[in-house]
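**Protein fold record**
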Amino acid sequence: MRLRLSLLIFLGGLLFSSKLAAEESHATMKYRMVIHGGAGTIHRAEMTPENEKAHRAGLEQSLKAGYEILARGGSSLDAVEAAVRVLEDNPLFNAGRGAVFTHEGTNELDASIMDGKTLKAGAVAGVKHIANPISLARMVMEKSRHVMLQGDGAEAFATTMGVPLVDPKYFYTEERWQELQKAKSSPVPTPGSDQDKHGTVGAVALDQSGNLAAGTSTGGITNKLFGRVGDSPIIGAGTYADNHSCAVSCTGDGEYFIRAVVAHRISSLMEYKGLSLKEAAQRALDKAANLGGTGGLIALDRKGDFAMPFNTSGMYRGTVDSEGKTNVEIYR
């Protein structure tokens, strides 16, 4: 009888300790967000103080939008969408309102988002009348049975979802238009060169429940051929998230990132080879570089560790941790 009582007391104490540890673990769960605003030829000497200040402010605003959601216990998906929307609304970045022009003088936008908990994903490509493609990508994930919709079909879906279509003039900025004119009058850049900025925006987040998410949005590349699609809306190439490994958003020469399956390669190197996040991220980026591609990426694992490798002269990037501490960088 005494032995049974002692056993019950022991088991009760064990259960209480386990519950206490679980509650303590949940209470101290470190959440984090990492964002990028594109990588490429970004030299300090060529950027005015005003322009640098504006870019930093845009990145900080994006981090704030995501952090506020994470801090109140919101999901990593909500945080990623909110952070990317801020960058899509900012004409300084090549996504949404700041999208570059195609050879025909139009704006074609791509985006994707992925939930690390369920491995569900959504993407849109080649849309011309959507102010926030990242939100439409999420609707594809949550309100359709598909993963990717493109062009007119994606916009028809948007209409059924009540998403307003915007006039193409919404995307016009004089700076982007002049970039197109310059590109048309100049020799075609060597494929894989660092001559042009790789304009893409993205975010990865870890929430208080330990769930990862990733999202990417872009206007593509200046003077691109009609219908060209890069890595940004391709799950596994430009975007990937899995709670068992990491969340990734890429920016760079899309054709090479697709061929190297960069985003998923990082997850695979971690899961199957046991590499750390930083080792896997660098190795995946090197794979694209060996093919001739330049660019960068942001990655975040389930422990809150992050990596931001790039092989260009600069990459707009920033982080915010669970204490609200932000850090924004541009140059190497």
Summary: Confidence is low (pLDDT under 50) at residues 14-27, 190-196. The radius of gyration is 21 Å. DSSP finds nine helices and twelve strands in the chain. Residues 2-27 form the longest helix (26 residues).
